Amino acid sequence: MSKVLIYRMKQYLLIFFLFCSFAMNAQYHTTGKELPCVNKVFKVFAHVGISETGETNLTEEEIVETVEAVNKYFEPICISFEVCKIDTMWNYTFNVPREHLYEEMHATFGEDHLIDLYFCFMEFGGPFLCGRTDGTILSDDEGAVYTHKQCPRGLAHELGHLFGLLDTFVPGNNNSLVDYSNCETTGDLICDTPADPFDGSRLEYFIYDCRFIYDGKDANGDYYLTEVGNIMSAYFPCYCGFSRDQLLKMVETYNATPNRFW
């Protein structure tokens, strides 16, 4: 058997193992084995930006579908989200908000004991971002989630932040090691999520057809084995689920909050 054929077989087996491993992990998380059950339905108050002519560019049905779509990711810990109110933000400047307007938006329209979710056309420095989260459910104002109207797939990621999770990547200061030896002190501080070298640049440098293609190495000279399906990664086209330790972290955050959500 030629060396080229052996090398290609090894590449195939590595890719197959990585995808099967993630698929089995996702299935395990779905069953909820050994995971605590919060047994909580969080009520969502959706605030929608309007244009100068009063257009929202988003229907109530689309808002409800966007929120309901994330429930499958939180099912392993018995958390779900349900839209209970929808309003429009009368100030059209909130439809395409500048940086200083996010805090004002939440101060004006936020409501206690509900998950405040703001739909607007957001301006970012890069095309991979679909939203932002200010604070967490531990914050005095219970935090706020902002979602780009044209990128609803990022909502699960932002809700992960709201429940205390960090990104799997740290642009500009990424020293997470592939062997997990510094997982408790760097990166996302979660020890069952592989090191992620994403640096804030274009996604196509890292993934192709939801396959991880980055060929760089960590400080130890090890190749990255990043899970592109993790919801707290930047690879939103490939989202599959949270890791077990991420799920546990979200339960821990909920149990620590003094706030009582309706």
User: What's the architecture of the largest domain, going by CATH?
Assistant: 3-Layer(aba) Sandwich
Shape type: globular
Order of helices and strands: HEHHEHEEEHEEH
In terms of DSSP E residues, the strand content is 15-25%
By DSSP (H or I, 4+ residues per run), the number of helices equals 6
Main beta sheet: 5 strands, mixed
The CATH fourth-level homologous superfamily of the largest domain:
Collagenase (Catalytic Domain)
Q: What is the helical fraction, as a range of percent?
A: 25-40%
Radius of gyration: 20 Å
Strand order of the largest sheet: 2-1-3-5-4
How many domains, in number, for the residues?
A: 2
List keywords for this structure.
single chain; about 260 residues; alpha/beta; Collagenase (Catalytic Domain); 5-stranded mixed sheet; two-stranded antiparallel ribbon; about 30% helix; about 15% strand; globular; disordered N terminus
